[in-house]
Structures are given as structure tokens and as C-alpha cells.
Design brief:
Elements (H helix, E strand, L loop, with lengths): L1 E9 L4 H14 L3 E7 L8 E9 L11 E6 L2 H7 L3 E10 L13 E5 L1 H7 L6 H12 L5 H11 L8 H14 L1 E2 L1
Parallel strand pairs: 1-4, 4-5, 5-6
Antiparallel strand pairs: 1-3, 2-3, 6-7
Helix pairs in contact: 1-5, 3-4, 4-6
Length: 180
Amino acid sequence: MKKEIIISGFGGQGVLSMGKILAYSGLMDDKEVTWMPAYGPEQRGGTANVTVIVSDEKISSPILSKFDIAIVLNQPSLEKFEPKLKPGGILIYDGYGILNPPTRKDITIYRIDAMDKAAEMKNSKVFNMIVLGGLLKVAPVVSTKGVEKALFKTLPERHHAMIPLNMQAIEEGGKIIEQV
């Protein structure tokens, strides 16, 4: 198993954190991983993205031009990365940030209303974990046990009390993702 994933959205949506947690989760599951963030002035409101590769075997290069899975959280990200998905790939988008939904017929498209669910949970900071939960439902590239271990590794100790809420958000994301 080897999955090449791009996660993209506005800076501040937790895109880079989600990628980092996904990569650490792969490590916790004894997988080979790469994590390559791309941001600059985008970090505060522009588009940021991160490439994560999770594999059972050695990864030859972290540089990708095509992806197996794209998670897009805003319209510019959809326009940039939908064409870069491999045929048969998976595209996941948050309904809140997309005005013109994806149109390709050779990929599987999922919608997740993570922004609405985060508001319902009364914590906007779990938005990215809801999206991650949706990803793990449709493409279980890492285990939820690995994610929980990764949260303990990646979050500062002062935030460890938030881990149960993050795990609940992952569970909720798995419940609300829908194929379009």
C-alpha cells in the first residue's frame, strides 16, 4: 500500500497540522512516510498545502506531480489540485469552502461538511480532525490508534486534554462524509 496525498486549503484551517498528524500516525503504524509542507505568505489567509506519502515500502521521492487522494478545503485548492488527481483517485472537499463542486467522472468524490460539524461541536479547532476522520473512513491509510499516539507526540503537553475531543471529531468525520 502506498498513498500519495495532497491536503490544501487556506492558512489557518489546520492543513499543515492535519498533514503532520497524518504523517506521525503513519510512523506510529510502522509505515514509511514523507511530509512536505508548502506555504509562505499564504500562512495567514492564502492557500497552504502539504504533501504526505504513507507507504508500506521505502519512498523514493517526496516530490509528486499526481496524487491518489486530494483533500481540498477551498475553491482555489480545488481548481489547482482536481486536475492533478490520478484517474481512480479520491477527492474529498468541505462543502463550506467550495462554490463550484468538482466535475471529474474518473475519480471518486466525497463531500464532508466539517465546518458545520465543528460549529455543532462548538469548537472550530477540531475542523481539521473532522476532515481527517472522513479521510480515514473512505481510505484507512493509518489506524485511529496511530492517530491517537500521533496526537500525544505532536501536540504540546498543555493541549493533551484536547485529545479526547480530537478523537471524537475524527469519529464524527467518519459518520458525516458522503460520496457525491
